[in-house]
Amino acid sequence: MPDLLLLGLIGGLTLLLLLTLLAFAGYSGLLTGVTVSAGSPPIHNITVAYKFHVGSYGHIGQFFTESCSISPKLRSIAVYYDNPHTVPHEKCRCAVGSILSEGEESPSPELIHLYQKFGFKVFSFPAPSHVVTATFPYTTPLSIWLAARRVHPALDTYIKVRHRYSTWRVVTQIPWVVTEKVVQDMRNK
Fold first, then answer.
1. pLDDT score for 175
2. 87-125 pLDDT per residue, tens
3. Are residues 42 and 108 in the same domain?
4. Residue 178: how many CB atoms within 10 A of its CB?
């Protein structure tokens, strides 16, 4: 009888563990769709401190950590130049860093100097007039992994279906992570 009770307890705990993992995956966005739309940009003129990386997007976490350790209260940003589903991982390019200022506000010279001291470059992005935006929830680190595998295909599908412009500036907004890439319309080739 004690063996049967022990087996039942192990089975119950295993079931609870599986349910917890499923709930965590669901909370992280496993069952959430990627929302893609076109319109005015979610961000405007921004000044960014960044480091450029060539290689797998899976290895950029250290850049986020370094950027956040310099000024933890600033929002992080990543600009991904390549689709990891079509470009070899070792050739994928991105810039990772922090948003120093947004809109008409200018970043303080001290903040710029601080980031430059750690090897970051500073660049200002002008506000685009029209963008394609993809939104996916960011609730856990698993959300980033899920977004990396689902956002690019959703953007590519949206762009292929709606051929409105010959060149698109694509901005993917995941809270604290913004992805931007320029896509050429296939009609021009």
1. 45
2. 899 999 999 999 999 988 899 999 999 999 999 999 998
3. yes
4. 23
170 and 115: one domain?
Answer: yes
Sheet order of strands, 121-125 included = 76-80, 93-102, 46-54, 121-125
The C-alpha angle 22, 62, 34, rounded to 5 degrees, equals 40
91 and 134 housed in the same domain: yes
Which helix (H) or strand (E) element contains residue 37? Answer: strand 35-39
Which residues are within 8 A (CB) of 42 and not within 5 positions of it... i.e. 6 or more apart?
Answer: 131, 133, 171, 173, 178
Do 20 and 78 lie in a common domain?
A: no
- pLDDT for res 1: 66
CA-nearest of 90, 7, 13 to 56 is: 90
**What is the Cα–Cα distance from 112 to 166, expressed in whole angstroms?**
36
